[in-house]
């Protein structure tokens, strides 16, 4: 029986020191890929994470703390990753931030930051990764969009705009690489219990005077028919599938994993 392996490949995952990005990074590492981590956090904890992943999966890791709103820092990260690992084979654009407010009250600096991190950063990493991928005639670009790239919610104008834009960028990248060994696809999660979503749960529990468990059920009931959170591990398994031979002709899709959210 053929066992799929990413041994010898290198994956750069932005925003991968926690949450969805970390889940995807670990799934790719479990398949044999070396990992370049990126994100904010305590450096001691991040280095411990790198060591732990190396020991658990027998791969190599690196870390770069590039601020994904800064094109020059993104360029430095890509250059360093390519230097250390002789190229980036798998690029996962996961970094993202959120802010909630009505359009007329939405701070302009928050709009600019969300567009920069959630959308423009994917352009900057992709343009720098593509030449090496095309030279090898193999590459996987995976953009973490959202159900909010497919449908909208009130008070999330910048996030929705960025995620819709990311899906459009995914399709264009897929078309430009259609006759190469490089693929580009988007993953659109529904509610995932990341630290970011946990903050929304905590706020709801406090606002409504209910327990954390009840707040979770109320949050899910609004949008996600399954009544269950999507897990980072499930998203990681989908990313690994995109990297496999079976994913070779999956190009330009926006694949929602959302417990039925957009089926309504």
From TrEMBL:
SUPFAM superfamilies: NAD(P)-binding Rossmann-fold domains
Coiled coil: none
InterPro entries given in the database record: 3-OHbutyrate_DH, NAD(P)-bd_dom_sf, Sc_DH/Rdtase_CS, SDR, SDR_fam
Residue spans crossing the bilayer: none
GO biological process: monocarboxylic acid metabolic process
Gene3D superfamilies per UniProt: NAD(P)-binding Rossmann-like Domain
GO molecular function per UniProt: 3-hydroxybutyrate dehydrogenase activity
Family assignment from sequence similarity: Belongs to the short-chain dehydrogenases/reductases (SDR) family.
NCBIfam families: PHB_DH, PRK12429.1
Annotated PANTHER family: 3-OXOACYL-(ACYL-CARRIER-PROTEIN) REDUCTASE, 3-OXOACYL-[ACYL-CARRIER-PROTEIN] REDUCTASE FABG
Record's protein name: 3-hydroxybutyrate dehydrogenase
Biological source species: Undibacterium piscinae
Higher taxonomy: Bacteria, Pseudomonadati, Pseudomonadota, Betaproteobacteria, Burkholderiales
């Amino acid at each position: 029986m053929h066992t799929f392996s990413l041994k010898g490949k290198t994956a750069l995952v932005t925003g991968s020191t926690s949450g969805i990005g970390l889940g995807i990074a670990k799934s790719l590492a479990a398949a044999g890929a070396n990992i370049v981590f990126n994100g904010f956090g305590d450096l001691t904890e991040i280095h411990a994470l790198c060591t732990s992943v190396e020991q658990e999966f027998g791969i190599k890791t690196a870390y770069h703390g590039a601020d994904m709103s800064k094109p020059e820092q993104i360029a430095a990260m890509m250059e360093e990753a390519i230097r250390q690992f002789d190229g980036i084979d798998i690029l996962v654009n996961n970094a993202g931030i959120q802010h909630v407010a009505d359009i007329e009250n939405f701070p302009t600096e928050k709009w600019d930051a969300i567009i920069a991190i959630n959308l423009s950063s994917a352009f900057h990493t992709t343009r720098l990764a593509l030449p090496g991928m095309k030279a090898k005639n193999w590459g996987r670009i995976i953009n973490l969009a959202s159900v909010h790239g497919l449908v909208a919610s009130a008070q999330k104008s910048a996030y929705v705009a960025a995620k819709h834009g990311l899906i459009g960028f995914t399709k264009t990248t897929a078309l430009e690489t259609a006759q190469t060994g490089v693929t580009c696809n988007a993953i659109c999660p529904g509610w995932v219990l990341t630290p970011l979503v946990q903050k929304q749960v905590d706020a709801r529990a406090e606002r409504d005077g209910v327990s954390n468990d009840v707040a979770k059920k109320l949050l899910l009931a609004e949008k996600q028919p399954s009544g269950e959170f999507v897990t980072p591990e499930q998203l990681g398994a989908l990313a690994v599938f995109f990297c496999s031979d079976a994913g070779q002709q999956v190009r330009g899709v926006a694949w929602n994993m959302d417990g039925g959210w957009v089926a309504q």
